[in-house]
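In response to the reviewer comment on reproducibility (Comment 2.3), we provide here a single inverse folding case reported in full, input and output, so that an independent group could reproduce the run without further information from us. The structure tokens appear first.
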């Protein structure tokens, strides 16, 4: 007899490091989802900025199906056509000359950090090993990346953290100047902090980091796992600022829902990843590469990117309208379709309370810490879905206010 999984199965069979909502979605199309009971939801969460073209977009489905009949996986003993096509597409569209492929953002950031350290040792010596990151940053869940991330709660309880990691204050260049020196090998930064509260960098801050790296022979690493592949309204957020990094990491929207990651860099830096120095079993997987190529080619068009910027304004207008009525937000911020609404002081820490209320109204959303409601929908979400989703959000917030 077949068994229909329930939410209680999660508690029985899976490790308790997550606490998912009670509903179990079983089908998606575009920016809408349906659960086991057939109830419909509008998706403002986007798989945490992953589902760049929504659910089951025909461009991605067709790419996956076509590749599924050809070749799934080899190993890095060989290469394959989809991986080579994806690498070329990324190089032609960015500052980069070389691409390392992997399966996730955490892997991409791990590769970036290892490359930065190895490059520094090879070119300057063992003393040049310091990595500067920022408080409230997030770079992944490997032990190295979670230590570089500026949220200690994610690294506590696992023993001694890797050394040589310093944390400055985001958007505060003086705090970086106080830490940077000739022993600095890299500064790692998100052009917009995601898990840290949807906080965009100022242009002066990113340019200042570029100047400090140049002055101290350090590498500037942009973590674009969450901001990349159209999320900011440009293919990569660095293009909004005109500040070019030495290394860039990409994942999430890159695969449109298929697990894939990439690290991009220049010829001069890439030489430090000599044969055998790093690897990824699934990196360059043919299925993942075929889907990611389809996503990149569809998203990196004037129509889609301009649409992201237009939709940003629609989200902001609706959120401001809701706030004029209910007064729950202190600030609305973000770039493109990565948007955060910080709770007002009287609703401090209550962002998470909106999520189950939104589910009850048929809307899926996110938080970025306890005090910021986050939205990261499909880059091509229909305007009608934005309108209806915001109506549902307004009803959820009205319930929150009524409880206060």
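Designed residues, in position order:
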């Amino acid at each position: 007899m077949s068994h229909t999984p329930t939410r209680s199965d999660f508690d029985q069979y899976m490790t308790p490091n997550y606490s998912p909502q009670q509903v179990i979605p079983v089908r998606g199309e575009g920016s809408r989802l349906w659960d086991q009971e057939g109830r419909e939801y509008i998706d403002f969460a986007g798989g945490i900025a992953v589902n760049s073209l929504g659910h089951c977009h025909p461009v991605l489905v067709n790419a996956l199906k076509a590749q599924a009949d050809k070749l799934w996986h080899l190993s890095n003993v060989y290469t394959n056509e989809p991986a080579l096509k994806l690498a070329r597409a990324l190089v032609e569209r960015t500052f980069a000359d070389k691409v390392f492929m992997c399966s996730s953002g955490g892997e991409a950031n791990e590769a970036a950090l290892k490359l930065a350290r190895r490059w520094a040792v090879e070119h300057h010596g063992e003393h040049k090993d310091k990595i500067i990151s920022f408080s409230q940053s997030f770079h992944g869940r490997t032990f190295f990346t979670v230590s570089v991330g500026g949220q200690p709660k994610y690294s506590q309880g696992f023993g001694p953290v890797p050394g040589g990691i310093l944390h400055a204050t985001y958007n505060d260049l003086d705090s970086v100047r106080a830490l940077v020196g000739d022993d600095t090998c890299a500064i790692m930064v998100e052009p917009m902090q995601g898990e840290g509260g949807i906080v965009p960098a100022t242009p002066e801050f990113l340019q200042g980091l570029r100047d400090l790296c140049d002055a101290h022979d350090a590498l500037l690493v942009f973590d674009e796992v969450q901001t990349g592949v159209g999320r900011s309204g440009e293919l990569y957020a660095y293009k909004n600022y005109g500040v070019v990094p030495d290394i860039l990491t990409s994942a999430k929207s890159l695969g449109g829902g298929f697990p894939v990651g990439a690290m991009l860099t220049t010829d001069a830096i890439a030489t430090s990843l000599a044969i055998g120095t790093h690897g990824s079993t699934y990196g360059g997987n043919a299925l993942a590469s075929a889907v990611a190529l389809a996503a990149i080619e569809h998203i990196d068009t004037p129509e889609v990117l301009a649409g992201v910027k237009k939709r940003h304004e629609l989200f902001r207008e609706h959120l401001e309208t809701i706030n004029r009525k209910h007064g729950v937000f202190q600030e609305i911020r973000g770039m493109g379709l990565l948007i955060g609404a910080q709770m007002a002081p009287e609703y401090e820490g209550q962002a998470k309370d909106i999520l189950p209320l939104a589910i009850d109204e048929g809307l899926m959303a996110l938080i970025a810490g306890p005090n910021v409601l986050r939205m990261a929908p499909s880059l091509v979400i229909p305007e009608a879905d934005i309108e209806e989703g915001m109506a549902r959000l307004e009803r959820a917030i009205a319930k929150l206010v009524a409880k206060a």
